[in-house]
Every structure is written in C-alpha cells, then in structure tokens.
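In the lab's daily routine, each protein ends up as an entry in a very long ledger. A line of letters takes care of the sequence, but it says nothing directly about the fold. The three-dimensional part falls to structure tokens, numbers that each stand for a local backbone shape. The outcome of that step, for a single protein, is printed below.
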Amino acid sequence: MRTLIEYYDKDVLKNIVAPLTLRPDRVVYLYDSGMTDMTAFRALETCFREHLPKIQVEKYAVDIHSVQKIYQKTCQVIDRCGGECFLELTGGSELMIIAGFKAGCEKGVRLVHTDLVRNEITDLSTDEIVAETVTLSLEDFIHARGACFIGESHRPPAPEKYEAINAMARYLFRHLSEWKPTCSYLQTVAARYLPHEVFMESKEQIFMKNGKKVSPNREILKEFQRLGFLKNLVMDGERVRFSYCSVEDRQYCTGYGVWLELYVYIAARQAGVFDDVKLGTMIDWNAYDGVVVAGNEIDVILMDHSMPVFISCKLRDADTAALNELLIAKKRVGGWFSKGVVVTFSKEKVEGSGTYKRAQELGLELLDSSDILAEDFGNRLVKAIREHDLVSLKWKKV
C-alpha cells in the first residue's frame, strides 16, 4: 500500500495537490488538536474521491506546540504504513515541518516538498523532481473547501452571441449617462411582467417607486434591436412596445452592470488560455450544514495554471468595500495561492487614486476604463493575471 503523510494546513492547495498528483492508496493527515471542525476532512475526501474513488483518508490530532509529540505521532504513522511511504513537508506549522523532517530521516521514508508556484514536487534528499503537479479544476478547490456551487446569477451567453454582446457593451460604455435611466426604465417595466415573459409595453414616460420620472433613450433601444437583443420595437411618442429575443436577453437588458461582467467573461473565454471560466458564480460556503445559503456572488472566476482567479466587475468607481469583498472571497477558496482582479469603469489607475494604491497594497490587480476601452483589452486582462507575482507578495503587508 502506498501511503502519503500530510500536515494539515489552512491553505487548501497545500492539502490537495500532492495527494492528487502522487495518487496514494491512503493519505494520513496530522492536524492541530485545537481544530474542532471535522467537516474539513470530509470535504477533502469528497475532493479526492472525484479522482481516486478507493482512496483511504485518515486523520490524527497532535499538539502542534510540541516538536516531540509531533515527532512521536509521525513515527507511529510511519511504522503502520506497511509499504511505500511519502512524507510531504509543505503544509502545517514550522514545528510540524521540523518534527516531520526528523522523523522522516530516522525512519528512512521519502521526504518530498511541493512548490505550488513552479508546479512541481521535489525529493528533499536529492533535489530531484518527483512529479509535475496535476492541473486542478475549480470544483477541486470548492469541494476541498467544503463549499459547493449553487448556480449562476446570469446564464453564460453562447459563443455565437459574443460579437453582439461585445458591440453592445462598448456602445453602453460610451453612453453610460444615458444607459443608467434607460436601464431603470426597463427594470421598472419588466417588474410588471412575469419572469418568463418577453413582450413589453408601457408609456414612454413612467414614474419609478421613488416618484422619479424616467424614460428610455431611443438610440439605446434601437441599438438593442440592431444587435439582436430585442425586436418589433415601436415608439410613437406616447408608448413603447417591443419583445426581447429571449429570456436571457431580457435579463441582460435589465442589468446595469452585467454588461461589464459579460465583457470580461467573453474576453477571458476568447483568450483561450484559461480553464473553467464561470460567470456570476454563487457559492454556498458550507455544503455540510444542511442549509443552502448563497455567499457573495463572484462576477467572473477562472483557473490559471491550477490557481483560482477571482474578478470583480464594477461599472462605476471601485471602493474599499469592493476590494475587501474580493480579498475575502479569494482567501476563502484559494488562500494565499489565488489571484484577485478588479475591473472598474473609472480612472483609478490612470489617476493613481487611493483605491488603486490600496489595491496594490492588498495584492490585487486593477484594470480601469483606459484598459476596458482599449482594443487589446483581452491581452491586458491576460497580462494582469499572468504577471501577478505571488512570490513577491510574500513580502507585502497583505
């Protein structure tokens, strides 16, 4: 039997990469005895069984403040291996690694370390590369975290719709002052109809709940029709009539900020270098409590070389609350080994605003309107993600 011994770590990636790469028959975790939530190991087992259906997962508590006790427990586990044994020294506390190195050397087991940035597992005795790490999916992270996907706020568009959406998005970005009241008008009218209905009719000038008078911008409605989001548009000066081309088109046309989310999602998809690109992802952070509760929606999430990347899209100025929300989301899933990008329709980066400087301090990339409106936005998005240097962030006050 092939056994892999792990020191449990709060960073999910450190717990799952070596087992999924080395594919042992049994993986044994030594964890802090002060840890009380055992669903963490249930979550790890769920993650592993997607790839290794017969794997055995065991766990043993240790006093992480005592090198001697960690050493003794590690030796006991090694003695019971009964076959090939690996001891990974990547996760856990500093004292765990010290005790593990001592136990591994004395017992003659193979000591390995996983470089999560270089994507390789190395033999600590010889510096030889044991294996290149496997490519992880978003589901691997979510399952290992004890969370689950519970849906999408917006259905991702079909590829044949990409060109029209990009054209409409760029049009709206250039006419935001007209788009805001038009969107309010479309939202107010749509609220009178059932969610599946696509035909709409209303007075051209209406009152919203707050008593404010609003009417749509005619050119925007014509552009929606020209690009295939609505049809049979009639505006006679008194009333407006039209039909959305689909329920999804109705959702897009009544969402003010969704156009930036769609724009970023399509750019990530068309880049062709990312895996698992998802739009408007909603996550239940505790899949084992019997209650389905959606956490904060993540506008766009994708995988880049087995690291999750979280993108927050704001069709307005970003603020500290938006940065903190993104920071918390990425830490909950990927820990330190994840990336965060804010795409905001503002001049934050160009003007070097306080928000931009705060994003840099938090280790977040920020793209503003100068990037969004650029012809090579897709390349800029890829560059922001690929050049996000996790190693240098070690020495930042994040």
The longest helix spans residues 176-190.
